[in-house]
Write a structure and sequence with these properties.
This is ATPase AAA-type core domain-containing protein. InterPro entries: ATPase_AAA_core, P-loop_NTPase. It is built from 13 helices and 15 strands. Helix content is 27%, strand content 26%. The strands form two sheets. Strands 1, 2, 3, 4, 5, 6, 7 and 8 form an eight-stranded antiparallel sheet that branches. By secondary structure, the chain is α/β, with parallel strands linked by helices.
Amino acid sequence: MHDKIDTQTEENGDCSCAGTCPNVPTEALLSLGPVNYQSVIPVIRIFVGKYRTYPSTLEATTDDDALSFHATTILNYLRDELHHDINKDCIIRTYDRKIKKHYARLRVCDLGNGIMISMDSSLNADTQNPNKLLCDYPKDYFLLVSDMQIYYLPEHDTFVQELASQFSKMTIFSSKSSTLQMVCKNQCGYYLSGIKIKKPLITDLALHYGSNFVSTHDKIIKNLNTKESKGIVLLHGIPGSGKTHYIRYLIQEIQDKTLIYVPPDMAKEISSPAFLPFLMEQQDAVLIIEDAENIIKDRNESSTPSQAVANLLNLSDGLLGDAMHQQIIATFNCDLTTIDPALLRKGRLIANYEFNKLDVESSKILSDKLGFGSEGITEPMTLAEIYNQGDNKNEESNN
């Protein structure tokens, strides 16, 4: 990146920018900006008043909805690399009762070179912090930027894009969550109880599961987000390879559908005569069944064929499937050859994917990304092994 750049305005030279209005009175020029409200900083009006030019604008965004810019890291960069005096910023501070302090909710940085940066920030303690950043306030609160706009003179377009690229590396993972409806049972029958599931720290699927998995994920998410659809997704592989971790990620990407979770101890209930009538009340839903080995095994290999398999077949591609439009995600650890072959039939199967260990090079890259380093990695590793290196008190299981 560069130091401050000299710019030309109407006061120090010729400027032929489309937004420059040299003959317009100052009062009329300021009216070009949005109406000024007490709770916001009128950045465009400030820019117009200072440079007599309506600015170009770049909206800085992250690559993932769960990633937020870290305000303190950005400010340190502006101070250390661009020699910006952050004490001269225009700030609106807000009092927060949880931390019992005032914090900068709105901030405008004028780099003094025809570039202004506007940051709208909020406090968040619900974060994942693999880069081990120091929290900004007590109780592990971080100051996160929810909206950032860069206003600039047109000649700085390349510089501003480079600046935004630098900012994209200054992020922290704010935990997004979705609600799963878990199947429960009491003396009155089956019912659903909502549970919150946080989105795991996956910003690059290829990094976590290999490049071959990306096309499979795209196919899965396209089908699950299709209204009035049906079918089954089979996810299998060795323990710790990331099946549950992926499902936590996947459910955040499913839009406008009820997500029904069948815990392992309830999976056998799918064979119950009362279970299907219960499910009929939840049309256009996604059914998630973990550790489904005992209900998907080949019926020809059992002396007592499972009604659960028949029910799954009917839900995924039978008359019930046509009426209820439910889709099924089933995870299991057993070998694919032991499950009922009818589940694999074309037209019924949305996707079938086997999770495994990451190769050595991929394991090293992911380990580095998570802040563990890679010196001790000499053989393929599962996601669980990579995530639970060192102090694993706060790490989740990645089965």
